[in-house]
Amino acid sequence: MHPYIQKTLDVVTKRNHSEPVFLQAVTEVLETLDPIVKEHPEIEELNLLERMCEPERQTMFRVVWQDDNGKVHVNRGFRVGFNGALGPYKGGLRFHPTVNLGVMKFLAFEQVFKNSLTGLHIGGGKGGSDFDPHGRSDREIMRFCQSFMTELYHHIGDRKDVPAGDIGVGAREIGYLFGQYKRITKSHDLSVLTGKGIDWGGSLGRKEATGYGCIYFAQEMLKTRGEDFEGKTCVVSGSGNVAIYATEKLQELGAKVVACSDSGGYIYDKDGLDLDLVKDIKEVRRGRISEYAKARSSAEYVEGGCIWEVSCDAAFPCATQNELDEAGAKALVKNGCKLVAEGANMPTTPEGIHVFQSSGILYGPGKAANAGGVAVSALEMQQNVAWTNWTLEEVDSRLKKIMHGIHENSLAHAEKYGHKGNYVIGANIAGFVRVAKAVMAYGLV
User: Fold this and answer.
1) Smaller CB count within 10 Å for the chain: N or C?
2) What is the C-alpha separation between 38 and 378, in angstroms, rounded?
């Protein structure tokens, strides 16, 4: 490892010692930048690595709201603008009890490079709260969102910072957030939030974009070996928005998806998932995935089980960070899995990544494979600014083109620096180079 990279890691570790997932994300990126640092001494001269590992701004605020029984609750709200060199900060809002500043910084850091890879003019940011929407009524969620936006609105704008949805934040929550923003500002700035409903400023294809984009990227990976998804058995972790639409696209392409999961466990359906049933349980009833097994005789529910032990040709971690560890990775390889593409943010641990890379299977990291969501969010912004709507076919065509470009760019940078076929190194370097050029162009700011 280049001494400057190690020095930067030491500084970042000391400065952020209580934030393990953030340090994991930084380490994973910096350790792959050795060839570019050696080739460009100006990176060290201008201390670019340390500058790019420190957020440009971090906002934390109190969110006070009242439940249906009149009880007053206090949550924490966050917004991290990590790097705006390429454009306004862009990244989702996550409502989940695991949210803290370290998680927000990790997600925002990843977002910088993911957004860079899209080729669009967007910087990287992330936000959210430790509020848990599960089990809350619509009115409680509305009151929380209104309180959250009463503070957040100071910090956002379509030329400054544009939030979207993430775990726990869908079109319903975006609607409540936008309604409060509109109420406070007395303006109808549609492009200040993305992930909106189709009827009031949202983009066709946005709901499907992260899941579809992941599969489009995986398609490109398979093409390098002359293969496609027809007849392949697949496993998709999670059962939220990303997992549902990754499954939908896989089924369209002829694959058989046999398992999905939630925080309680996973279901295995030997006949292939009934996606309409999954959508009804998760999108309509907002229930638990265990309900699926009660409705399908071909399915079984494994409480607290490891979905990665299910035999498959391709696996798609689409739930949350660090869900796929070394043991899970070894189980996948042992059972014949030939491709892993990440629909979630950093879902595989460093040890798991090592297993995949040493085994020679195709491995697509999240910052490349799950960039489809933010790409279509940026396309939604473009439509809002122009006061127009594109067809689903046009949005999907642009998404495919962007995912193809990310794949080709990642492969090209991997090969250029002596790591042919390594999507991790290729994506990290490709994403870094574009941001670094902009940072250097602006001087010491």
Assistant:
1) C
2) 34
CB-hemisphere CA count at 13 Å for 29? Answer: 30
> Can you name the residues that pair with 59 across neighbouring β-strands?
79
Q: 267-303, pLDDT tens digit by residue?
A: 999 999 999 999 999 999 989 999 999 999 999 999 9
Token pair 């990642």: residue: 410
Final residue in a domain of this structure, among 369, 404, 422 = 369
Region of 178 please: left (phi>0), alpha (psi -120 to 50) or beta: alpha
Question: What sign does the CA torsion over 262, 18, 81, 440 have?
Answer: negative
What would the mean pLDDT of 218-241 be, rounded to a whole number?
97
Q: In this structure, are residues 101 and 78 in contact, taking their beta carbons and an 8 Å threshold?
A: yes
pLDDT one-digit tens code per residue, 64-107: 999 999 999 999 999 999 999 999 999 999 999 999 999 999 99
Residue 37 shares a structural domain with residue 175: yes
In what side-by-side order are the strands of the sheet with 314-316?
299-303, 265-269, 256-262, 233-236, 314-316, 339-341, 362-364
- Smallest CA-to-CA distance from 75 within 44, 91, 108, 97 is with 97
Decide: helix, strand or coil at residue 415.
helix
Cβ neighbours for 418, distance < 8 A, ≥ 6 positions apart: 35
Which structural domain range is residue 70 located in? 3-188
Nearest to 192 by CA among 103, 93, 86: 93
Note the pLDDT tens digit of each residue in 179-218.
999 999 999 999 999 999 999 999 999 999 999 999 999 9
126 counts as catalytic: yes
Q: How many CB atoms lie within 10 A of CB 23?
A: 20
* Distance between CA atoms of residues 259 and 289, nearest Å: 11
Which among 343, 384, 367, 438 has a CA at the least distance from the CA of 121?
438
Q: How far apart are CA 420 and CA 364, in angstroms?
A: 14
**Secondary structure percentages of the chain, helix, strand, coil, to 5:** 50, 15, 30
Query: How far apart, in whole angstroms, are the C-alpha atoms of residue 357 and residue 330?
Result: 11
User: Which of the residues 90, 105, 114, 126 is marked catalytic?
Assistant: 126
CATH number, position 349? 3.40.50.720
Give how many domains the chain has, as a whole number.
2
pTM: 0.95
User: Under a CB-based contact definition with an 8 Å cutoff, are residues 60 and 103 in contact?
Assistant: no
Length of the chain equals: 445
Q: Pairing between strand 89-95 and 161-165? A: parallel
